[in-house]
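Notes on consecutive records. When two proteins share a document, each keeps its own sequence and its own token line. Never mix them. Below: protein one.
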Amino acid sequence: MTTTTEVRSTGEVPGDWRMAKRLWPFLLASAVSLIPFTVFGMYLVPIAAAADGSVAEIGGLRGLGGLAALIVGIALAPLVDRLARELVAAGGLALLGLSAALGAIGNVFALATFCLLIGASTSILAPSIGAAAADRFTSPAAAGRAATLVSATTSMMAMLAAPLLAVPGLFWGWRGNLVAAAVISLALSAAFFWRGWGRKAPLRAGGAKRMSYLATYRALAHVPGALPLLGVAMLRTAAFMGYLAYMAAFYDEKFDLAPGWFALVWSLSGASFFVGNLFAGRYLAADRPWLSSERTLLLGLLAALLAVSAFYFAPSLPLTLLLTSLMGVAHATVAACVTTLLVRRSDALRGSALSVNAAGMSMGTFVGAAAGGAGLGLGGFPGLALVFALITFAGVLLALRVRPVAQT
């Protein structure tokens, strides 16, 4: 693929450190994107007090972010491929900064707007920086690895954001953290805008004209394996995020685990996901024919199915912790496979593909929480196991439809 952005690589896949040095602005933007919602989750109790609302009421506003991410991600997906990637990322970062500044006001209306804008901004920012990172390399293997490196950074930040924000929060509180996030986001937005000004959207293979809005979706539907891959991403997210939503309740009921100890369990899950995503992306970049990306996708889903089927019935805490770690690694592997395959197969449509993928995962988050709640209410934790196993099994069936294609 030929683009007007800088392509600085030959067909080989650079090492992670060399690639990170080349992609550091995108990795930084990926990390910053998680700060505002992390602050919202960390300081939910004082934020609710400041807004004169209950924890349940204010916490429920977060759902607005997922709804906004779904709507904006679907509606604006072609935009990522019709403008210079840096300009789209600049818009997402500006929206992120504005939302963080509004959140610092602290009343109910400002917090509702904060949640809506956070969801909208991340649905723009995440696919644009993933696609921009992939565009820096010409070979499909290197492009896929670049995109998974961005997602690995996001998962790492999800694990580290809370402890990193705790120290400055001691000095200036949650409002100070949000103001700092706003300043950093707006500064990055200006840098991306300056870098992207005057650049053009990536050209299609052969220099073809840009497609119309609806034609973009029609073309995306004809990308080999795109529809089942997007389905796998949504179902995987539903199973994993639903499992995470009720994980604390399960550990509390079965093992009477205090919140302080459960924080270590959460860190184990986050660390497992980060390591799985990082090393799966590195493995997939090597493009080994004896265990292709398509087969790795299927194996990851089967491992996730095994883990979730056994998790709620494990007889001891050590085995349950082992299954928690396996769950994180398995889902991270599937996520890396989906990102890699979409980037490799979508060519100049990769921005649209990643945007629709992000929107589908936002919907999956809601589906997982709702389905898990129904399963828990009807059948307790065995009901949770059944619901999440069925969702994961549906992902396995879709993965069987993802066939290898020849790379040109």
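Protein two starts on the next line and is unrelated to protein one.
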Amino acid sequence: MTDTLLPARIETSQDEGATRLALHGAFSLVILTPLVRDLTRAVASGAVTIDLTAVSRLDSSAAWAICIAEKDAISNGQSFQITGLSEESKTLLGAIKKALPQPDTAHPKPLRLSDRLENVGRTIAASGQFLLELLGYLGLFIDRMFRSIRHPSTFRFTALVHHCTEVGVKAVPIVALMSFLIGVVLAFQGSTQLRQFGAEVYVVDLIAISVLRELGILLTAIIVAGRTASAFTAAIGSMKMREEIDAMRTLGIDVAGALFVPRILALLLMLPILGLIANISGLVGGGLMSWIDLGISPGMFQTRLIENTGIWHLLIGMIKAPFFALIIGIVGCHAGMQVGSNAESLGQKTSASVVTAIFAVIVTDAIFSIFFAQVGV
């Protein structure tokens, strides 16, 4: 029997506080499991010395086990020595060490002023690009709308009715309840403050202006953004993931006309109606709480509402509704078309569309408020 075929064995002993492993014979994949077990025990007990003098053959699997044990011992701050290395074994162990994955120890360099300015510039450029893409989708919607007017046979009326139901009819309960509770809260808080000055009757004006001018349509748009923008993104994104949109293009179906126009048009039609429902619910809630807390009868509430609340307060809220609808619809459809080929992308874009739509609605409302304040309306 030649030396390379000698059976492998491991002798373990203690030498001056260190665990000494003397390897004998040929070490290959067959002996890997007991070798790893003994090396692990030795590293766990403290310092390790490995003697390879009697090793007749060392293959890459055994060399890998020794290198891993050495790496673990060094990471624990322990001593690890290898003695009796032949030139062949030294070359093999060196190659294995180089092939082992190394942790990324590079520390990020501190950001300089130029780096911070670059990040700001890139963020602004990305925001500008995003706004241009939204404007492109707005132009696409307007173009397909005019095309549908010129060619009524291409308009998908069934899809419009379906989306009106999903966007508007199914949102009525949550919108009405939300606005009713907002009216109740406004009346209660307003009466608490105005009672200190003996001006409880002005709570009617507070409720009317707050609900009709701002809160009714704004909170309705926020609720619709949460429901509808996410639904649009999820529906279109799922179709994109399943390559249904590519199939539509292959069949010659206009994606914008089939997917975008019915959804955005449904929002344009239903959001003003939802806003009116929110206004009515808010006034009813405020009137009910005024009756309970202040003793203002429904007749007195109605009389003061009609006499002291101008029609412009209602019109200002309704003017905002189409703009909010366009923002929500375009953001939802755009995010759906950005979905990649995996479910993680779908979730990210759905969340991003809701956040973006709500943020854009609030910013638009602030711009309208400043504008109407400047023109004195």
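For the record: The mean pLDDT is 86.
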